[in-house]
Amino acid sequence: MLELRQLKYFLAVADDLSVAAAARRLRMAQSALSQAVHKMERQLGTPLFDRAGGRLRLTAAGRLLLPEARALVDLPRSLLTSLP
Questions:
Q1: Burial grade of 25 (CB within 10 A; 0-12, 13-18, 19 or more)
Q2: Are the C-beta atoms of residues 56 and 13 closer than 8 Å to each other?
Q3: Model-level pTM?
Q4: Beta-strand runs (E) in the chain
Q5: DSSP string covering 22-83
Q6: pLDDT tens digits, the chain, 84 residues: what are they?
Q7: CA-to-CA distance for 31 and 29, rounded, in angstroms?
Q8: Those residues with Cβ within 8 angstroms of residue 43's Cβ, 6 or more apart along the chain or in another chain
Q9: Spatial separation of the C-alpha atoms in residues 65 and 38, rounded to whole Å
């Protein structure tokens, strides 16, 4: 089962298209973030990023996950704002 934390990590890397930049923004070690993304990909059974040529690009699966991950990560905030 995926965790909200993993989705946040995925979104950070997807936004920056750089593990190093995302790790700096998240204030965590680059190796820890890279491992977390690889673990997520293993759990899903598909790569989310194409790492060819030293640059990151979203794969088709990553592009499909992106809006869903954003919605899930934003859900707790939107629930809180909708309560009286």
A1: middle
A2: yes
A3: 0.90
A4: 49-50, 57-58
A5: HHHHHTS-HHHHHHHHHHHHHHHTS-SEE-GGG--EE-HHHHHHHHHHHHHHHHHHHHHHH-
A6: 889 999 999 999 999 999 999 999 999 999 999 999 999 999 999 999 999 888 899 999 999 999 999 999 998 887 778 777
A7: 5
A8: 2
A9: 15
